[in-house]
Amino acid sequence: MALTLPRPHRDDVRIAVGGLLGGLLLWALGIAPRLPSDDLALWPQRWAPLVPLTVTAACELLRRTRPRPALLIGTAAIVADTVTLGNVVTIVLYTDLMYSAVLYGTPAAARRIPWVTGLLTVISGVVPAALWRDPQALLIGVGVGVVALAPASTGWVVRNHRDAAEAARLRAEQTALLAEMDRTQAVTAERARVARELHDMVANHLSAIAIHSTAALSIDDPGTSRQALAVIRENSVAGLAEMRRLIGILRAGDGEDEPSPKLSASLEQGGTPMPPTLDGVADLVDGARANGLDVSLSAVHGRVPAPVELAAYRIVQESLTNALKHAASGRVRVALSEDDGALHVHVTSPYGLRAGPGAPGSGAGLIGMRERAALLGGSFEAGPDGALWTVRARLPVAEGDPE
Questions:
Q1: What is the pTM of this model?
Q2: Going from the N-terminus, what domains does the chain have, and what CATH number goes with each?
């Protein structure tokens, strides 16, 4: 299989071509760092510097894609350049190869090269000075430091800054991603909350309307029809009031629309619509009785946090709505009690075939009740228990964040 080299970067091509042309210009002008000598008599002194120059310029094409091989070949070329008249451009190109090997090489190579070049700088200065006992021999170490250590150290500094900038960019992207996930979760949670509120507030009244309208249509009795229409009107007005209340919750604080006088009367002093409390459970039971349910209420509890009150109220409301739509004839029992640091909601209704008209259900009510209990760290169960349909909810009364 033929070895295919990666395509060089356009800037690397410019550096290679520019360096080669510059070196050729200096060579043509006869500018060299060293003078001809007898020690170089065996070499074709005039043409010899072009070989290291060409090799080093070719290595520039690999400075990004293959920095380590480029540095090794360039090192061999710079060593060969020292036994010729030399070319300043060859030295400059080699410093760039050293810089690129640290900047674009592997992390391990980037850590080792500055240490190796630093050690070579010290050795190339101290050893000749000690052997020749000439302080001027320290200039050899200075030259090695300029050609090798300085570009390697510069590449290390630039690489650290580049890595730090990349890490900061990744952290910013991660932060933005987490913020978007939080926003999406918040929107989803808010939509679920609004869906629960809308279902729990309106479903009870619409179910009563559906059942009594069916009864009015199926029974040819003016008295029964008139009574059914009265219940329908009562639930329509109550459902409209609940809907206005929900709209008031959604618009609270936006400043775009002013609430109606009736809605304003139901607002708290802080400007937020009053949420339902456990004191309103008795009204729920009275409303269920008006809709035809045989309901009893037993409530023994102390003061509980507002989120727990709202959840318990909605669970009782939805349980009565389901009993109105699906329960067989018989008594519905609602019990509220406090024990073991939790508020217990227990609703039972007759389970079996319904004698009168009913209303269809979607199952969203059970999902909403389960979600309300879960948000408070509680538990929820609903299902048939012999001849009864039983709803049990345990809501911890410890203070927590409202939903």
A1: 0.53
A2: 10-175 (no CATH), 276-403 (3.30.565.10)
